[in-house]
Specification:
single chain; about 500 residues; alpha+beta; 9-stranded mixed β-sheet; 10 helices; disordered N terminus
Length: about 500
């Protein structure tokens, strides 16, 4: 995959209150002070929290080692798009100090391997995620507008492209479903239309269109470059380091929770290199959130099982592939069912290779901000393996060729020099909803995980929910469907 760094603004600014994103400005906690110099954080003090407990104990898998002590109001574990946007929301919406801790580097999980869709066409009006999806969609649009207001180009800064989206069906049954979906999306306030086969061919001349083909078309849908967007948000967060309110601890895995000796309240985290005291902790570690919480609570009396599973996905990227030109982002109807492992349609999506792994492949296709052809996508359960499976890549190529016959003229073996493969482990929850909320028995520890393939599209709404929880603000949307209680206990 080509680097996204060329698209990132060198001097991004935080979003202003006038954009409607910021909902809080009152100081709740003491602030920290540190300086961001180049790629290192230089602290003006080793500890700053006035009410730091005199004695602490640690629950986790590793003993406390000699390390530097720092204090922040909020520590966020995970530097994917969820963790970075939560940090951003707290920084622009309050005066709290925030630290982001990451076991590797930013976007090293699902975020950096995604297609960047911010599409509403596969969403279902009235579902428990609908309000969160709509709110996030609006906030992304506001962010792009704020970039324009600064005189910058969202395409260059965020990899932003208003592609519109097509959900393609090829049978009478699928076309009937698409008509019902368009009706619901239109009633929910979105601009949506159902395209017959002739209209679909006009929109996408390269697409194989039969007489029973059609599509749900949302012309206002857009996509981002995930790596570029995450880098932009990260740079904007670093603006607050100069004010002593932000720090990053990368390549520094969390090894334990720090507890007050008197009350057993969680008062911070221990990492492999640092002791970080905090008033609130947010776990946004994607597919690793469940195993991390298991390790962190090993010696505590809190019973918590976060059933987040890694769901592996392959994407095929062809750099500067000129033979196929697309006007919109496309996905087949099977992609909607493809998000649920029990739905493996042999009509719209391909048959599973291995029922034990619940593997499926559905056609998705788009051109990214650099003009690369991005094809997908697969889903399977194989644990935390991130190895490339060439049989799946070949199947993605074959499936794409069934929709775009021109691809059949190109053996994949002839494209090895321009071919890249993205592997991501999506944090899957069995009920299809993310987990967002406080941990029962630990009111200052919050979870934000389980977004599966929707992390980027739901990120800003999730960040708003978590920030409101941390700050004690009334929420903009109902977050009850995403509660930890009853789903992880």
């Amino acid at each position: 995959m080509a680097s996204a760094s060329s698209f990132c603004c060198p001097n991004p600014n935080p979003i202003s209150r006038e954009n409607g994103v910021v909902s809080y400005s009152k100081r709740l906690f003491s602030s920290s002070r540190s300086l961001f110099l180049g790629s290192k954080l230089v602290s003006t003090k080793t500890t700053r929290l006035r009410n730091r407990p005199e004695s602490v104990s640690m629950s986790g898998s590793h003993p406390i080692s000699a390390s530097c002590c720092e204090s922040f109001d909020v520590v966020i574990i995970g530097a994917g798009i969820i963790g970075l946007t939560i940090a951003r929301q707290l920084l622009i919406g309050s005066e709290l100090s925030v630290a982001v801790v990451e076991k590797a580097v930013p976007c090293s999980g699902a975020t950096g391997a995604g297609q960047g869709y911010i599409w509403m066409v596969p969403k279902t009006p009235g579902s428990e995620k609908w309000e969160l999806a709509m709110r996030s969609h609006k906030l992304w649009q506001m962010l792009a507008q704020s970039v324009r207001d600064q005189g910058l180009d969202p395409l260059q800064v965020l990899g932003w492209k208003k592609t519109g989206s097509l959900l393609v069906g090829r049978t009478p049954e699928e076309l009937d479903m698409l008509k019902r979906r368009v009706k619901k999306l239109s009633e929910a306030g979105l601009r949506a239309e159902c395209l017959c086969s002739s209209d679909l061919l006009l929109e996408e001349p390269e697409l194989m269109v039969g007489e029973d083909s059609g599509a749900a078309f949302l012309p206002d849908d857009f996509q981002l470059d995930a790596q570029c967007t995450a880098a932009f948000i990260e740079k904007a967060n670093r603006h607050f380091a100069l004010k002593g309110r932000y720090a990053e601890f990368y390549n520094d895995p969390v090894t334990g929770l720090l507890r007050s000796g008197s009350s057993s309240e969680v008062v911070g985290v221990q990492t492999s290199k640092n002791t970080l005291y905090s008033k609130a902790i947010v776990v946004a570690a994607g597919s690793w959130s469940g195993s991390l919480m298991h390790d962190l609570l090993r010696d505590s009396d809190i019973l918590l099982d976060v059933p987040v599973k890694p769901r592996k996905g392959h994407l095929l990227v062809l750099e500067n592939f000129k033979p196929l030109q697309l006007n919109h982002g496309l996905m087949e109807v099977g992609y909607v069912d493809h998000q649920t492992p029990t739905q493996l349609s042999t009509t719209s999506a391909s048959e599973p290779y291995d029922h034990g792994q619940a593997l499926s492949v559905s056609m998705t296709a788009t051109l990214d901000a650099m003009g690369n052809l991005v094809l997908g996508s697969s889903r399977q359960f194989v644990g935390f393996s991130s190895e490339v499976d060439e049989s799946i890549i070949n199947h993605i190529w074959k499936r794409a060729g069934e929709f775009f016959p021109k691809l059949q003229d190109w053996p994949l073996s002839c494209l090895s020099k321009s071919r890249k493969v993205r592997i991501g482990l999506r944090p899957y929850m069995f009920d299809g909803k993310p987990v967002i909320g406080s941990v029962p028995g630990m009111s200052n520890v919050f979870l934000a995980t389980g977004h599966e393939g929707e992390g980027l599209s739901l990120a800003l709404g999730t960040a708003e929910i978590v920030a409101d929880m941390v700050l004690g603000n009334p929420g903009t949307i109902d977050h009850a469907p995403f509660a930890v209680q009853g789903r992880c206990c």
